[in-house]
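Reposting from the mailing list since nobody answered there.

I have sequence plus structure tokens for a pair of proteins and want to know whether others read the tokens the same way I do. The first protein:
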Amino acid sequence: MPYLIDGYNLLWAIKKNDEHFEPVEDAGMCEMLNHFLRQIGDTGEIVFDGVGPPDKGPFKGLPQLRVLFSGPGVEADTIIEEKLIASRSPKKVQVVSNDRRVRYASEKCKAVTWSSEAFWRRVESQLSRKRPAPEPRGKRAGITDTETKTWLRMFKLD
């Protein structure tokens, strides 16, 4: 289920609740979101107000997350609303924002809506999980012929 994120709204919520969340800046937040989306096997778009920094390099190379800037004179909220309306299946979109206008548009399209704080708690929780150890090759593939012969010899079954 793809995510549509109100960038500065999420960043502001993280900074406002800094006693609960680790401090992060916009590029670092996008990198964490990319890792989160990779772990859960999903994709997302994050929309920031304005034209963004002159060097957009830190926002590139994030395969799971597309970073957009609304441009001069256009609000991120407008872009998010347009993306929801244009979506083929808005019910499958997860919208992240505390903004009343965005939440209203999201609920109107029957999209899943997350508050910025609840979503960021989920991101931090997911990223802090330990990765399970990889399964041994033999679990799915079975043992090799050499290993079979060794065991048969060891138990004198050959």
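The second protein, same order (residues first, tokens after):
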Amino acid sequence: MLNKFIEMMKKRRTIYNINNSLPISEERLITLVKETPSSFNSQTSRVVILFGDEHKKLWHNITKETLKEIVAKKIFTTTEKKIDSFAAGAGTVLFFEEQNIIEQLQQKFPLYADNFPVWSEQSSGMAQYAVWASLA
């Protein structure tokens, strides 16, 4: 019996030669990300999707300039090449966790309060994996 999930995982791979050719529409990508379920149905995961100038600004203006200040000058060339390879992409998907919801869950379920930050990180990882797999 064919398991579609396993087959999708077999097709999924990391792409090292990033370019700005998006094989699906921006709208379809946004829909795929939005359709990703969350664990506990807590909806703590948040996503920001950047295209075009905003994508380039993230990598060139924010990331490169920030790292330039903290990475040793003699090895920054390697870091800069990696940043430029990411900037060459069609867009960026950024994940983060909504701390206000986590705090509300901690207050609502005090017995499990210490667990919610850990569960939130796990939820974020699952969301990232689900989106990564969906883009196969």
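Reply #1 (J.P.):
I read it the same way you do. The CA atoms of residues 33 and 131 lie 6 Å apart.
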